[in-house]
Structures are given as structure tokens and as C-alpha cells.
Specification:
- The protein is mainly beta and about 220 residues long.
- Helices cover about 10% and strands about 45% of the residues.
- The strands form five sheets. It has a five-stranded mixed β-barrel. A four-stranded antiparallel sheet has the order 1-4-3-2. Strands 5-6 form a two-stranded antiparallel sheet.
Length: about 220
Amino acid sequence: MTRLGLLLALLAAPAASATEADVVAAAEAAVADVWPDAEVRVVRLSGGAEAAPPPLRVRFRDAAPRGRVSAEVEAQEPDGTWAPAGWAYLEVAVFETAPVLITDVDRGEPVAGAVRLDRVETTRLSAVLPADALGAGWTAARSLRAGTVLTGRLVEAPAAAETGDALRVRYARGAVAVTLDCEARERGALGETVRAVCAATGATYRVQLTAPGEGDWTATL
């Protein structure tokens, strides 16, 4: 066969079909901004997705997919545009750096000195604590075993106010901005909202705790 004949034969040959590795690479690229350490596995591909030639693009319905999810697979046309090719059913495993207990702790015991930071799979965990979240005063909400990945449901933040504590409340509404001396009616951690009563006004307020003994007015009860 002449060189010209060989070239024409190559041009006429169908493009190679995508492999599962092509789909995985496209899917991991699609979630890289949200889950940079995600690992994707193909569960099932439609016939169109299997036959599509690379390069491919994967589109997820959710901005932060995790677990088993469906996605659309697109193939690039000769003019550079993307066209639907089929669908993929994928397993998106999410990995994060999170605090993990290195020893057993009982309910109410401090956890800050009993953890290490480790890369763990968090696909089926919710409210995993950021790596820098734990500080002095955090305690276990229940008895926990070594190896437990800490989530917001398993620990309690240090109290910013106990029942009966004095609270400095910043009240701002329209042009009015004052600081009120109040008394907390319940316990609360940083970021939580508690009821507080002000003797000077006789009113009860909802206050979001911003620091120990301090908070911002959110509503009048």
C-alpha cells in the first residue's frame, strides 16, 4: 500500500472508543474544584458513552456529587463543540483531611488532645469538622472509640454562655445601635442562638453568640 493509501485508510478508520479510564478522568476533572482528592469508579455506562471517542466531558447534576450518582457524558465534535454521547452511573468517593481520634474518649471529655489529622474517606459522613476546627474546650458529645472521624454531631463546642451568665448584646435596628447588658437564659456555644433577658428594657431577645459573654441581637421575643 502506498503512503497515500495508508493515510486515507487511517483517516477513514473509526475513532477509538472511550475506555472507562477516559470517563473516570473526565469525571474527576469535573469535581476537582469541589473534591480535589475524589476517586471515581465506573459502575455502568450507556452504550452511547461506551462508543464515544475521547476526549470526553462529564456533567453532574449536583455541584458536589458524592456516592453513587448519574452523570451525562459528552464527546467533543471536530469543530470543538460538545455533544451528548450518553450517560454514566458512577461512584464518587470523597476524601478529606479530618480529625480522627487516636484514643477512646468518654462523654464530656476533651478531644483536642486526642486526635490526629488524617486523610480519610468521608463519602457517607456529614458535617465533618474542618482540620483546624478543634480547639481547647471541645468535648465528646458521647463516648467515642479510637479511629472515629469527628463530625459536628459527635462533639460539643465550648460554651460561650451558660444559663445565668452576663451577656453584652449588640442591638442594631435601623439607625439605632446600642449595647445592652443582658442575662443568658440558656447555654450556648459560639455561633448558636440563645434567649437573653435585659433588665433595663424588660424584653427578651434572641442573641447569636459571637464570643464568650458577647452576642448580636437577632430578634425580640
